[in-house]
Specification:
mainly alpha, 300 residues
Length: 300
């Protein structure tokens, strides 16, 4: 073979060796998140072990080094129910829809606590996990969602107390009780939705840590926790009532008490409005959280 032929053969072999191998490996493109990033809720399932670890840690820390432990779950609403019964029923002679005052107040506080406790814990979840947020990647949505587990445990204990009180007073639950899990879900969904928004804001504005409990205190008295809606319809001017009922917690609390005790009236139109507002609140909170999430590690 001539020298020219050998040179051409060598060039072809070198080209074939240098040519990149074609593979079917997926290409991952990393881009900065847009203004409204998708929620990617499926990603939470991939980190479900972390979700359960955070949720169980929250339950353990809640009662660590406490003398009474889980008894606080019963004592806190029970003491509140006694005070409410004394003020609203004994002093103000407010109607309790034919239900014993202490049972009426405790049931209202049980529903309120499911909302209040979840919102308080969800609001501080990002700041309280600052070291984890600034050093390790994981879906940040896990933090507010994981706070709901301790709420459900507390609610279960409180519901047992309600069952005992109902047995003492001879109140028998009816088929209305089937609505109770739905109302509980809406309470927690609304609290998580607001908690997503406030937790994202709290990264920058730490004053919210003190403002949220104050706002919730006012909101409790603007909701039928210690009084019935019958009083509102009797005493409040008709022109102002739509503004009162615009609070989605109003009809949710009424429906919650009705589902357990079978007393009072539920306005299904307002209940549907409350359910729609809860979904809107959750969607707004979730998308706002995702929008502000990219700056957490830099600010926190």
């Amino acid at each position: 073979m001539s020298t020219t032929g050998l040179v051409e053969k060598e060039k072809k072999s070198l080209v074939s060796v240098a040519a990149p191998q074609q593979t079917n490996a997926p290409v991952v493109k990393i881009r900065p998140p847009g203004r409204w990033a998708p929620l990617a809720l499926g990603e939470i399932w991939g980190y479900r072990d972390l979700f359960w670890a955070l949720a169980l840690r929250d339950v353990k820390l809640r009662y660590k080094q406490t003398s009474l432990g889980v008894a606080w779950v019963v004592l806190q609403p029970l003491i509140g129910a006694v005070i409410f019964a004394f003020v609203f029923s004994f002093l103000a002679n407010v109607s309790t829809d034919g239900v014993p005052p202490i049972l009426f107040m405790y049931t209202g506080l049980l529903g309120w606590q499911a909302f209040n406790s979840t919102l308080n814990k969800a609001s501080e979840c990002v700041v309280s996990n600052a070291q984890l947020v600034s050093k390790v990647y994981f879906p940040r949505l896990i933090l507010p969602f994981s706070t709901a587990l301790s709420t459900l445990i507390d609610f279960g204990v409180g519901l047992g107390v309600v069952a005992v009180m109902m047995a003492i007073y001879g109140v028998v639950p009816g088929p209305n009780i089937l609505l109770m899990p739905v109302i509980l879900f809406l309470f927690i969904l609304a609290a998580v939705g607001l908690g997503l928004y406030t937790s994202a804001l709290m990264v920058t504005y730490r004053d919210l840590k003190y403002a949220v409990p104050v706002v919730l205190q006012f909101l409790m008295y603007a909701s039928p926790v210690g009084y019935s809606l019958q009083l509102v319809r009797q005493k409040m001017p008709t022109a102002l009532q739509p503004f009162y009922f615009a609070n989605p917690l109003v009809e949710l609390l009424q429906a919650f008490r009705w589902s357990l005790l079978g007393k009072g009236e539920v306005h299904w139109g307002w209940l549907a409005y409350s359910a729609i507002m809860v979904v809107v609140i959750f969607a707004f909170g979730a998308f706002s959280f995702k929008r502000m999430e990219k700056g957490f590690a830099d600010v926190i």
